[in-house]
Amino acid sequence: YKVPPATRQLKVELWGAGGGSGHLREQAAGYGGGGAYVEALLLVFPGEFLQITVASGGSAGVRGRVDITPSENDEPQTTDVCGVAAGGVPGGGNGYGGNEVWAAGGGGGYTMIERFTKHGPRCMVLAAGGG
């Protein structure tokens, strides 16, 4: 976003993305937590550039499972496989399901505004966390 001429301040509102839903024993899924809300008045310079990153929400929980593989002896081989629910981008953590009973949803990503500087790296000026 390029700050318009004669603009010295911007009122901004940011929302972090929501987390993914979870599951427990074939019951109705629980809802993921909401992302944070931030409101601020930013001091800016006409013509400067701001990078606005909008977060994505976390995925719904995925249950784990047990894979059974036949073997040459009498007992089959069992392997536990965790279910993985992707976290939102950027910054949302993954959720895991360790068995067929429960699963946690992925965390929501954060929304942010960054300021470009003359010296290269960007500087984060405002962020709203994910749920």
TrEMBL record:
It is found in: Cell membrane. Its EC number is 2.7.10.1. GO terms for cellular component: plasma membrane. GO terms for molecular function: ATP binding; transmembrane receptor protein tyrosine kinase activity. It is a single-pass type I membrane protein. InterPro entries: ALK/LTK-like_GRD. This is receptor protein-tyrosine kinase. It comes from Aureoumbra lagunensis.
